[in-house]
Specification:
Chain lengths: 696, 350
């Protein structure tokens, strides 16, 4: 059960790999003509939108494609041996021993009914035949390596007793138990919060160096790949379209898709008015509806009829002068890659109008039974929101930022009337609405305050046509007198969200994610909403679609003078579209100010950490690395004093342990800029900016 | 945990009280009582005579008082005539002095379950012996049914869509779709009929009451077990297929764990959580089957007693049988809840 013999070639060579899934109807090619090489100690990033085949490549390497999947061409060689020729027993020896994998959802990938220790010990016991004692010793060692506190206790606990970040560390520990030669990471941090993500990414990088492991890092997040990988491979619709070193691909991209991708993500410098994002037009083709010729052809700005749509696969070609930089485009030499972005339409900045919504010391506490199933006994109070005070004006975008558990969704619920406030006021047009549940609100109020939800896949009724769902909202808001009028209004709403009118008769399952979210937006604006709470409206969507949906929201807002409360954890997009930003931590507003004020020093220490944790896909950006220790404390048992004191790196700058004793007061730093911190003015003013853009 | 069980027991007691009251009310409806009076007294009694007969025996009291007496929380009725005193807690006719010495309460709580008019015996004794006999039957049913059903379910579910899966699934659907009175008759015809059958087993289980052996006891056990087995097997299979596609099973597979170990160590415990509740819910169903099978095989157990009591308007026996059934159902539910907590660490008490 030892490792394969030493081999000094590349760890992984994938050559012209094609993988298809076979259904009763047809063969669906998932990956076509994919080649890539991973050298020892190298980290390869695999980037693309969902459905582009990146996870299929990973499972192909693992030879675990399920019953329907089959490798139909090409080869995968691991340390020089063809994996597809190995027997089941040989494959078992390699899996978990030589190639290990880290998965997207840590909770789902750990066995819920098995103790952590046992799951970890299994690896060396299978592959090296060591005894239980030795296995336990090693498990303890690895758990210490992934920086988990109290390893003994962790080994004895079940997965559900750990937080998401801890679970992911356990999955990483499990993968590293046998010191594999190749580590495959399939979106390892997508399910985690940004600050936790930053810590996990740093851990993976350090351990990769320590053990000399090669990595195949799958992600849709270009910024993350920039931070972790040496080389990158961009995939589109089953094909690799561009591959090369990070520097080459990020700065000297040679494929229209890569270029379009970079232009559609909000990088520092993008601005919703002066430099709007450029969404990629059209939709991602389904595997069985791929166009002839170049897959990206129909969405490409440089599309040439008669060249790009000839039914022949476009080959990968080397880019002269660069190190292993290849691209799959027929017009590489014709396109001027350095041409500046076509100035898309710029709009004038809209001035915020009157105050429409005012929150005053809003509090929301939940009382929960200490033990939900076995009931009774003491109840505990979850302080979901503490003293929220702010104003929102007409046609203003106020972003609410924070990690999961910070109380941003609770706040949205209270505003919507799904919950009533414990204390404080919500004033909408000089009326108090904090104590009125949604059933008791009049139609006007309900129509005025609407919501766009995070997950467009779950929020549409699957058995009702799109038009019907919008008409239903119109009926409820008492818009239009007759059915014909309402139908007309519904078609106008479809125009508003730029969906073809024919979509009215479609069912939600026939729509893509971005289209569904547009329907969700149309529904929210059905009653002429004046305040729209957008709860992470684009985080479930693909990068190329995100820009289009964001722009749509902005456009509707400009026309209707809507107040947009944009709840998000993605600081890049917040910076791009919001006028003011409110940062929340454990139910407290720790910082509130205009976007420029929040994104520049002086920061609240939490904002500083949050900013440094966000991966930015720009090689010119330099970031200070601040890694927060530990997890977000539970709202059931918040720390005394300042909520952030358990993780704050500035804590020792405050004399007399004040942070542990008192909740800091809300301090006004500048006009409209409030920070909740004990740090002295000098220290706050002396803070360095976290994100620096190097001069070009 | 103790508090949890205590609460559950309290809820159980409340449920039992409500259910027994319903049964008590229904069995004590006037037509039933009239029929009782006429079978015990005289078929040609007039209406007044019936009323007097019932009054003399305490049946005339309001329903709540009667229920209280039956439970043993209300003083038992007494009836004085010039010949002596009769009463709920007094055997036959007694002098006033004897009557004064008799206990005031005598109901289920005091262990007095009443007198069966069919068997002419104390109800508690009858229920005790019959329950013992049915317990023996049930034990063997469980011994056969549970392991077989789990094995079938796990084998079918571990490779969804395979030939094994289809064969076993067909088998389990067929068994569940065949009620006991059909399968029982078929088994008797095939294995026990003296004319055409194989004569492997006996068609009656009467002798199994004293001395159960494979020959006289297998058919009734098999008949009940098969019916319940298909259902449990289907549930286990569904749960198993779901678990086998779970991400943590993929994790295990990509960790290099061999297939038998994946099934045994990783999948099994998770797959058993759902069927465990179903197995426990099967108990009430089995009681159903017991009624049919015991009558069919002439095995004089609990189900057979129920049929006798119901058929002969034996109120006290019927009540006792109902109470025992209610308790059996509630206790299995309690066990199912506790077992669920044990199998599923996610809801274990912190």
């Amino acid at each position: 059960m030892s490792k394969l013999a030493e081999y000094d070639g590349p760890i992984l060579e994938i050559d012209k790999l094609s993988i298809s899934f076979f259904t009763r109807l047809r063969e669906i090619p998932a990956v076509m003509d994919f080649s890539c090489v991973v050298q020892p100690g190298e980290a390869m990033g695999l980037v693309g939108e969902s459905g582009c085949g990146k996870s299929t490549v990973a499972l192909g390497v693992m030879q675990d494609l399920g019953v329907n999947g089959r490798i139909v061409g090409g080869s995968i060689r691991f340390k020089g041996r063809d994996l597809s020729e190995m027997s089941a027993a040989e494959l078992r020896d390699i899996r978990g021993n030589e190639i290990a994998m880290i998965y997207q959802e840590p909770m789902a990938s750990l066995n819920p009914a098995m103790k952590i220790g046992k799951q970890l010990m299994e690896v060396p016991m299978i592959h090296e035949g060591v005894g239980e004692k030795e296995a336990r010793r090693r498990a303890l060692e690895v758990v210490t390596d992934v920086k988990l506190p109290d390893p003994e206790r962790i080994l004895k606990s079940y997965p559900h007793q750990l937080s998401g970040g801890q679970q992911q560390r356990i999955v990483i520990a499990m993968a590293l138990m046998s010191k594999p030669a190749l580590l495959i990471l399939d979106e390892p941090t997508t399910a985690l919060d940004v600050t936790v993500e930053a810590a996990v990414v740093e851990l993976v990088k350090d351990l990769g160096k320590k053990y000399g492991t090669s990595m195949l890092f799958i992600s849709h997040n270009l910024g993350l790949v920039l931070e972790t990988c040496d080389r990158i491979c961009v995939m589109y619709s089953g094909e690799a379209v561009e591959t090369g070193s990070i520097a080459d691909v990020f700065d000297k991209m040679q494929h229209p898709y890569t270029q379009a991708l970079f232009r559609s993500i909000p990088l520092p410098g993008a601005d919703k008015n002066a430099r709007p994002l450029k969404a990629i037009p059209g939709n991602f083709p389904l595997p069985h509806e791929r166009p002839p010729g170049c897959n990206f052809g129909p969405r490409c700005d440089y599309f040439a009829k008669g060249l790009c749509d000839i039914d022949e696969r476009v080959p990968m070609v080397d880019i002269a002068g660069d190190d292993r930089h290849r691209s799959r485009c027929l017009r590489i030499d014709e396109i001027d890659w350095h041409a500046p972005v076509e100035a898309s339409q710029t709009t004038a900045r809209t001035e915020p109008g009157n105050v429409v919504l005012k929150m005053d010391k809003l509090k929301k506490y939940y009382e929960v039974a200490a033990n939900a199933l076995f009931g009774g006994g003491a109840t505990r109070v979850v302080k979901a929101n503490e003293e929220l005070s702010f104003e929102a004006r007409e046609s203003e975008t106020l972003a609410i930022v924070g990690e999961s558990g910070c109380g941003k969704s609770t706040f949205a619920k209270v505003l919507m009337g799904l919950e009533t406030a414990t204390e404080g006021q919500i004033i909408l047009d000089n009326r108090n609405i904090e104590a009125t549940p949604i059933q008791a609100r009049d139609t006007k109020t309900v129509a005025d305050v609407q919501m766009v939800f995070q997950n467009p896949f779950d929020t549409l009724n699957p058995s009702m046509s799109v038009g019907r769902q919008i008409i239903r909202a119109l009926e409820i808001f008492r818009v239009g007198r007759t059915d014909a009028e309402r139908r007309e209004r519904m078609l106008q709403l479809l125009d508003l969200v730029k969906l073809p009118r024919a979509f009215a008769d479609r069912m939600p399952r026939q729509l893509s994610g971005g289209q569904k979210q547009r329907v969700g937006i149309a529904r929210a604006f059905a009653g002429g909403a004046r305040i729209v709470v957008a709860d992470e409206p684009v985080s479930a969507l693909d990068v190329s679609v995100q820009a289009a949906v964001t722009d749509l929201l902005m456009e509707i807002q400009r026309e209707n003078k809507t107040t947009l409360l944009f709840i998000s954890h993605d600081l890049s997009i917040v910076r791009y579209l919001s006028d003011r930003v409110m940062v929340m931590y454990l139910g407290h507003v720790v910082e509130l100010g205009t976007t420029e004020q929040v994104f520049a020093p002086p920061y609240h220490p939490y904002t500083e950490a949050l900013l440094s944790a966000v991966p930015i896909a720009d090689t010119k950006v330099e970031k200070t690395h601040i890694v927060l220790e530990g997890d977000i404390p539970s709202a059931m048992n918040p720390p005394t004093g300042c909520p952030f004191q358990t993780r704050c790196r500035w804590k020792d700058q405050v004399p007399g342990g004040l942070c542990e004793k008192e909740v800091p007061p809300q301090r006004t730093m500048a006009e409209g800029h409030q920070v909740k911190c004990h740090l002295s003015d000098e220290i706050l003013r002396g803070m360095e900016p976290v994100i620096k853009v190097a001069a070009e | 945990m103790g508090l949890f069980i205590l609460r559950r027991v309290w809820v159980m007691v409340l449920t039992a009280l409500c259910l027994t009251f319903v049964v008590f009310f229904l069995t004590n409806l006037y037509p039933n009582l009239e029929k009782l009076a006429k079978t015990q007294g005289n078929m040609r009694m007039t209406d007044e005579e019936v009323a007097r007969w019932l009054d003399n025996r305490g049946y005339g009291a309001p329903i709540l008082s009667k229920y209280g007496q039956w439970l043993g929380v209300w003083p038992g009725w007494t009836h004085e005539t010039e010949r002596g005193v009769t009463g709920r807690c007094i055997d036959g006719l007694a002098t006033p002095e004897q009557a004064a010495g008799a206990p005031r309460f005598c109901g289920v709580i005091q262990g007095d379950w009443g007198y069966s008019t069919v068997f002419r015996d104390e109800v508690s004794g009858i229920v005790g012996t019959r329950l013992g006999l049915t317990g023996k039957l049930m034990l063997w049913v469980l011994v056969l049914m549970v392991p077989a059903a789990l094995a079938v379910g796990v084998l079918a579910g571990m490779r969804e869509g395979s030939a094994t899966d289809r064969t076993l699934s067909t088998f389990s659907i067929a068994t569940t779709a065949t009620p006991e009175y059909v399968s029982g008759v078929i088994f008797i015809a095939i294995f026990a009929s003296s004319a055409v059958g194989l004569k492997w087993f006996k068609g009656t289980a009467t002798s199994a009451m004293e001395d159960a052996n494979f020959e006289n006891f297998f058919l009734p056990v098999l008949t009940i077990a098969l019916y319940g087995m298909g259902y449990i097997a289907r549930m286990t299979r569904a749960s198993m297929t779901e678990v086998m596609t779970a991400q943590y099973v993929r994790t295990a597979r990509l960790k290099g764990v061999s297939f038998p170990n994946i099934v045994m160590k990783h999948a099994l415990r998770n797959a058993l959580i759902a069927p465990f509740t179903v197995i426990m819910l099967q108990f009430p169903w089995l009681l159903n089957g017991v009624v049919i099978v015991e009558t069919l095989f002439n095995y004089k157990g609990f189900g057979w007693t129920l049929v006798q009591a119901a058929g002969n308007n034996d109120i006290e026996l019927l009540l006792a049988v109902s109470v025992v059934s209610v308790i059996v159902v509630l206790v299995t539910q309690l066990i199912s809840d506790i077992g669920y907590v044990y199998l599923n660490p996610r809801i274990r008490i912190s």
